[in-house]
Write a structure and sequence with these properties.
mainly alpha, 2 helices, elongated
């Protein structure tokens, strides 16, 4: 097992070449902001898809209760 790990490490070391690239602080912060924005938009889309039907259900229940309360005579 140790030989296999060594062979894989050696193979990766021989194939991989160093990349001389630099991401400045502005580009890095912009990339992070884009990733977080995409994640937030996906999360908000799921919330919107789930929230509006639940909100409609609560509204219907509240309207039904108010109609039922209006139909019942007062026992006072």
């Amino acid at each position: 097992m140790r030989k296999f790990g060594f062979c894989i490490s050696l193979l990766i070391g021989l194939i991989a070449t160093p990349v001389y690239a630099y991401i400045g602080p502005g580009a890095g912060a912009g990339a992070i902001a884009v990733v977080l924005g995409v994640i937030a938009s996906i999360f908000l889309a799921f919330v919107a898809i789930l929230w509006y039907p639940i909100k409609r259900l609560f509204r219907r229940r509240r309207e039904k209760k108010s109609k039922d309360a209006a139909k019942q005579p007062d026992d006072e």
